[in-house]
User: Fold these one by one.
Assistant:
Number 1:
Amino acid sequence: MSDTPLQSSVNFAAIAGRLPPAPGVVVHSAFAQPGYLLERFADASADFAGATVYSLMPMSEPAYGAPAVVESLNLVTFFPGTGLRRTVNQGLATIDRQNLSDIPGLFSTGKRHADLVLLQVSAPNADGDVSLGIAVDYLPAVLAQKPFVVAQVNPRMPFTAGDTRLSLGDIDVCVDVDEPLTELPASAGDAVESAIADHVAGLVEDGDVLQAGIGSLPDLVLARLDHLKHLGGHTGIITAAWRRLIEAGVVDNSRKKRFAGTTVTTMAGGDAGFYTFLDNNPAIEFHACDQTHGREVLAAIDGLCAINSVLQMDLAGNANAETVNGRRIAAIGGLADFAGGASRAPGGKSIIALRSAFRQRDSGELVSNMIPRLDGNAPLSLASDSIDFVVTEYGVAPLRGLNADARARALIGIAHPSFRDDLSRSSGC
C-alpha cells in the first residue's frame, strides 16, 4: 500500500465491518483532533457499538461526545481537555488516570489496545511521508500495534521535525480534508496571574531548560524572560508564547547536552501563524511522551526548570491539580513527571503556582486554595517531595529541605491574608 490514494470521503460502516466487535479506537490528540473524521465516525457510531474511544486532551468538543452518540460508545480520556471536561462531569466519559510518561507503555505491553486510529496529518513530502504534526504523544506505541489507520490529510497541518513521520503506505484510508486546525486563543490573564508570573519569572535563571504548560499564566511567565540568556526548552506542549523567545535567541538550547540546539515537545497549540512557524522548522522537535516526560530523561537534564499550576495545596505541601468542589477540571497529565524530574535534576527547580483564593460563583464567597489538609474528595496530584517552590500572588515559598512545621509556616506566609490566622491555628504554627 505504498501508494495509498487520497479519497474525498470515508465509509466508516465498511471500516467497522473489518474490525472486531467493540474495538479500541484512538483519536489524534489535543489540537490535532481530526474534526471531519470525528463527524463521520459519530454519524456511524451505531456501527461501532461498544467501542472504547481513547483520547488525550481534546481541545474542542468532539462530535463523538454528543449525548446521542455517547450511548453507543465507551469514552475514555487520559486527560479531558476543554473538549471533554463537561462530558466527564456529566458522567458520560471516564478518565484513565495515568502519568503521561506511562501511557505509551500501556499500548506497547498490550494493556490497552487499538484496532482503529483516526489521525490528522500533513500533506506528504517528496518521499511520500506525512507528519503527525502538532501532536505525537503516545501515537508511536499505538501505531506499533498495527491498527487500521484512517487519516485526514490536511495541507494546514505543519510537517514538524522529530519523531513525526508516517509513510503513506502505513495508512489504510487517506481522506483529503482542508479545514482549519483547532487553535489556542490568546489569553491576557488578570492582575492576580500577572503578580504570580512576576514571582515565577524571578526564579528562572540563565541557562535553565524550561517546561511550561498551557494557559495565560505560563504565557505571562514566558513574556517576562527576555533579559535571560541561553535558555532551553524541553516541555510537554509548546505554544505561540515560545515563538518570540526562540526567534530572539533567548531560547537557543545551547547548554543542553541532549537535543542541543533544539526545543523538544510532544504537542503544540497556537494560531495559524504559529502552525506555519512550526512547519519544517528543525529548531523544534516533537517526540513521544515517554521521551519528553520520562522521569529518567528529565532527571538527567541540567537546570530543568518545571513551571506548573495546581488548584489547591495543603500545609504539608501536597497539591490537587484535578478537581474543584468535586468538579473535574483536569487529570494528572504530565505534572508529576515534570515536577518529579525537575526536583531531581542537577540544578533543577520544580515550581508550583496557584492563586491564593477564589470566589464562589453563586455566593461570591472567598475560598482559600491553601488548606490545612487535602480531604478524601481531593486527589493527591503531587506530593511535597516533588516541589521546590510554591508561588502565589503574595510571594514565593521555598520548600526544599524544610521540615513539616517550617513548610507549613512558609505556605501560610503566601496564603491569602484573610485566611492566614485560621491556617496558623489549624496547623499549630
Note: The mean pLDDT is 96.
Number 2:
Amino acid sequence: MECFPLIISAPSGGGKTSIVARLLEDDGLSRVITATTRAPRKGEIDGKDYHFWSVKRFENAIKKGAMAEWAKVHVNYYGIPKSSLDKLIKAGKTPVLVIDVQGARTVKKVYKQAVSIFITPSSFDELKRRIASRNDGTTDIKVRLASAKKELKCIKNYDYLVINDDFEQAVADCKAIIRAERLKVKRSTKKFK
C-alpha cells in the first residue's frame, strides 16, 4: 500500500488534539516531527518533540525547498521538513500532520496524495461555547473566534468533514476515512493483470 500524509485541521475548540491522540494508537500512523527555531522548553527533546534548528539552518532549508510547509510566528520559524514526511512514508507509515488551513493548502500542493480532514462541532454556537470554556485568561476569545470564522470558510478545500459533537463517533469517522483511503485501488502496490 502506498502511504499518504494525513492532514488534520480544526479551529480552536474543534477537538483535533484529542482525536489525533486516539488515532496515533494505530501502529500504521505516526506523528510528524516538525522543526522550529524557538528554544526547547523544559523536558523537550530534540528529534522527539521538535527538531530545534538555528535560524540559519531553517532559512537554508526554505531556500533549498526542503520544507513541506513553514510559517514565521512572531520571531520563530515553525515548519515541516520534507525529510520528516518522506522518512515515514518510506517506512510504510502514514504521517499525521496537525496543521492550519494555510499549511494544509501548501502540503497538498507538494504531496498530491495527501488526504485532508477538517474537524469541527456542528454549529458555530457550540464552537463559541468550547472556546469560551477553555479560556485560561491568556488567550483572546475574540481573536480565536475570528480565526475560526476564517478557517470554517476553507472547509471546501478539504477531502472530508468530520463533525465532532460525539467524540467516539468523530474518532470512528476518522478511522473509517483512513481505512477507506488505505483500500483505494490507486494506493495498491499489487499489480493485477
Note: The chain has one domain: 6-187.
